[in-house]
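FW: tagging you since you asked about this chain on Friday. Here's the raw sequence from the shared folder, copied in full. Didn't touch anything.
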Amino acid sequence: MLFGLSMFFALIVVVAYCMLIYIFTFYTISPIGVRIALVMTADFLSGGLVPLPFLPAWLTKYIYLSPFAAMQNVPFRIYSGHLNSYEALQAIALQGIWAVVLIVFGKVLLSKTIKNVIVQGG
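HL: got it, structure written out here
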């Protein structure tokens, strides 16, 4: 049950982060650099390249509070049983908070970005 809920919030966080990436590409001529930098950052900080428990403690205490941990680390740690029920509920609550923050930030940024879009042609 907790794993499914965590996967749901992880999906929302990932989609909101991807939407931010595409919003940021409005401000560049070529979107390749922005996409590569932000996707690689997310891959590393979410535990996709190196599991977060293997990273130094001084770094993980900040990553666990970031939206990146909500993408992969939390659901997989719940599934593997490394988080007890109380810790899992805390992590899911943090995932929900990040989902809301990223969605609101994305909507605000998108509304400001759309005002600056100029389409040329017939």
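FW: The chain has one domain: 2-115.
HL: agreed, and The longest helix spans residues 85-115.
FW: great, closing this out.
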